[in-house]
Amino acid sequence: MAQIFKPSANSIAQLSLLGAAIVPLTVGLGVAALSRSPANTKVDVPLNQPVPFSHEHHVSQLGLDCRYCHTTVEKSSYPGVPPTETCMSCHSQIWTNSPLLEPVRQSYETGTPIKWNQVNKLPSFVFFNHSIHVNRGINCNTCHGPVENMNITWKGNSFQMAWCLQCHRAPERYLKEDPQAVADGLSPRQQVFNLYIKYQKNNIHGLDEREKQLLKGEDASSDDPHDKAAGEALVKKFGVKKQQLADCWICHH
Amino acid sequence: METNENMPEKGHLDLEAFREKVAGQGGKKYWRSLEELADTPQFQQFLEDEFPNRSTLMQINRRDMLKFMGASIALAGLAGCRSVFLPVDKIVPYVKAPEELVYGKPLYYASAVTLGGYATGVLVEQHEGRPIKLEGNPDHPASLGALDSMSQAQILNLYDPDRAENVMDQGNISTWELFNAAVQTALTAQKAKKGAGVRLLTGAVTSPTQAGLIGKFMAMYPAAKWHVYEPAGLGNAFEGAALAFGKPVSTHYDFTKAKVIVSLDGDFLNPAEFPGSLKYARDFADGRRVQGKSGTMNRLYAFESMPGLTGSVADHRWPVKPSEVQSVAGYIASKLGVAGATGVLPKGVSATEVDLLVKDLKDSSGASIVVTGPNQPPQVHALTNAINAALTTMTGKIQIPAVSYTEPIEANVVAGTHSIQHLADDLKGGGVDLLLMLGGNPVYDAPADVMFGDALAKAKVAVHLTSHENETSAACGWILPQTHELEEWGDARAFDGTVNIIQPTIAPLFEGRSAIEVLAGLLGSPAGGYDLVRATWLPKMGVEPEKGWRKAIHDGWVANTQAAPVSPGAAKAPVLPTFPNTGLEISFRTDPTIYDGRFANNGWLQELPKPLTKLTWDNAAILSPSTAASLGLLQDEVIHLSHGGRTVVATTFIMPGHSNDCVTVNLGYGRTRGGSVACVGTDPETGEWDPKRWEDDGGGFNASALRTTHNMCFGFGAEIKKSDYQLDGLASTQGHSPLDDSRIHDERDVIRDFTYTNFISHLDERAKKDEEHHKEFEENNLFPDKVFEWDGPQWGMTIDMNTCIGCNACVTACQAENNIPVVGKVQVKKHREMHWLRIDRYYSEPEAVREDPNTIASPERNPLAGENPDITWQPMMCVHCESAPCEPVCPVGATVHSHEGLNQMVYNRCVGTRYCSNNCPYRVRRYNFLNFSDNQPNFSINTTPWSQRKIPGVLHEPKHQGIELLKMVNNPDVTVRGRGIMEKCSYCVQRINDARIESKKDGREIREGEIVTACQQACPTKTIIFGNIADENSAVAKMRKDPRSYLVLEEVGTRPRTSHLAKLRNPNPGIEALRRAAAPQPMEEKA
Question: pTM for the full model?
Answer without folding.
Answer: 0.91
